[in-house]
Amino acid sequence: MENMATVLKLVRVRSRGQLTIPKDMREALSLDENTGLNLFRVGKVLIMSPKRLQRASLAKEVEREMKRKGLTLKDLISDLRVQREKYLAEAYPED
Questions:
Q1: pLDDT tens digit string along 30-77?
Q2: Helices of type H across 6-93
Q3: 58, containing H or E segment
Q4: pLDDT score for 1
Q5: Strand pairing report for 37-42 and 45-50
Q6: Other C-beta atoms within 10 Å of 65: how many?
Q7: In this structure, are residues 2 and 29 in contact, taking their beta carbons and an 8 Å threshold?
Q8: Is 29 helix (H, G, I), strand (E, B) or coil?
């Protein structure tokens, strides 16, 4: 079974709005230079998914995974907050 764990990686947005997806993530998701991505904004969070996952099927897939793992929307939001704190601590370390 594929590991569906949350993975945090720091990337930087370049001057033209470009960013580089780390190689291990590209390989794990079978992304190449021809892969289109959907970009969703949820509040102040950006979510990217391969274009082959359309919105309706993406929502169904997320719902299916949540049920399978016994997760609620509250769990996801809580984890997003934790990941955001980790990101901010890494991106803006206190010296």
A1: 888 888 888 888 888 888 887 765 666 777 788 888 899 898 888 888
A2: 23-28, 55-69, 73-91
A3: helix 55-69
A4: 38
A5: antiparallel
A6: 11
A7: no
A8: coil
Q: How many residues does the chain have?
A: 95
Distance CA(67)–CA(50), nearest Å, equals 22
Rounded to whole angstroms, the Cα distance separating 66 from 34 reads: 29
Q: Is 38 helix (H, G, I), strand (E, B) or coil?
A: strand
Q: What are the residues whose beta carbons fall under 8 Å from the beta carbon of 34, sequence distance 6 or more?
A: none
- Please answer whether residues 88 and 8 qualify as being in contact, where contact means their C-beta atoms are separated by less than 8 angstroms: no
In this structure, what token pair is assigned to residue 88? 């901010």
Amino acid at 65: E
**What amino acid occupies position 71?**
L
- Token couple for 91: 């991106």
Residue reference for tokens 């370390």? 93
